[in-house]
């Protein structure tokens, strides 16, 4: 695990919370997962951008908290064409919960990614999901955690931020890799991060571009750079960037979420 002194204070605080969080009082779970790579490929074959829409009540980089029912938000995203969903289960800084994920996964028929700061094997057993996020920079035994996730039936999505972390992810056996465009030290977003890392990935790895996709033009840019999937949160929850949004937003938050998702999946 890298030195927390190199992290933005908000990220370091989230990491400390994850380290202190208790482990679930249960044995290993078993998951019959819906295929995330297949869902992304099916979306592209159907002429849609392969969007993983994120149910994110709040975050350190956004203002306010969404009060809508998480299941209703998830269903609105699927209605808008999302190929898969990402659901926050981190409680202290993102307002997420395992119960939200459980309810959403029961309500939809697309793959659901659990997004959290999972640091050790026991934390995998918190809740069943189709895929689970593992952040390469924060995991001491990445190979062991990838293997443990696979043994349970999870599809591990290993998040990286540079070429060195990509090599570590591949060495650990990652078959799905997310490249986060957000720098963890300054929290700045640069889409060139994905563009610099993607060419180093083997063709048989499913690549997901994360963070900074705020408009259809950004989605197209990431797909052209090699993204098989697009993890999008704020632009769906809060609205597409004005540069690409000529239509006025309505008063119904759920309808807005559906329309925001639709605009991005049509990119």
Tell how many strands the DSSP assignment holds.
Answer: 8
Low-confidence stretches: none
User: Could you tell me how far the N terminus lies from the C terminus, measured between alpha carbons in angstroms?
Assistant: 37 Å
Task: Give the CATH H-level superfamily.
Answer: Aldolase class I
Give me the Rg, rounded.
17 Å
Helix content: 25-40%
Mean pLDDT, all residues: 91
Strand order across the biggest sheet? 1-2-3-4-5-6-7-8
CATH-level-2 architecture: Alpha-Beta Barrel
Q: Quote the CATH topology.
A: TIM Barrel
Written as H for each helix and E for each strand, in order along the chain, the element string is HHEHEHHEEHEHEHEHEHH
CATH class identity = Alpha Beta
């Amino acid at each position: 695990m890298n030195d927390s002194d190199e992290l933005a204070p908000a990220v370091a605080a989230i990491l400390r919370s994850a380290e202190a969080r208790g482990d679930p009082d249960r044995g290993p779970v078993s998951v019959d997962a819906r295929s995330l790579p297949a869902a992304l490929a099916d979306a592209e074959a159907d002429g849609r951008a392969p969007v993983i829409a994120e149910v994110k009540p709040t975050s350190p980089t956004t203002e306010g908290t969404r009060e809508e029912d998480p299941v209703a938000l998830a269903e609105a995203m699927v209605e808008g064409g999302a190929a898969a969903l990402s659901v926050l289960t981190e409680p202290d800084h993102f307002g997420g919960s395992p119960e939200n994920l459980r309810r959403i996964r029961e309500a939809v028929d697309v793959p659901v990614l659990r997004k959290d700061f999972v640091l050790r094997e026991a934390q995998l057993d918190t809740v069943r999901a189709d895929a689970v996020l593992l952040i390469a920079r924060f995991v001491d035994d990445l190979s062991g955690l990838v293997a443990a996730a696979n043994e349970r039936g999870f599809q591990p999505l290993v998040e990286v931020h540079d070429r060195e972390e990509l090599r570590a992810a591949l060495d650990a056996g990652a078959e799905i890799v997310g490249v986060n465009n957000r720098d963890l030290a300054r929290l700045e977003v640069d889409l060139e991060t994905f563009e610099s890392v993607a060419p180093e990935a083997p063709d048989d790895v499913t690549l997901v571009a994360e963070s900074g996709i705020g408009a259809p033009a950004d989605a197209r840019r990431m797909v052209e750079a090699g993204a098989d999937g697009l993890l999008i949160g704020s632009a769906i929850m809060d609205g597409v960037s004005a540069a690409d949004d000529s239509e006025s937003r309505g008063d119904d938050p759920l309808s807005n979420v559906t329309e925001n998702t639709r605009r991005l999946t049509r990119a």
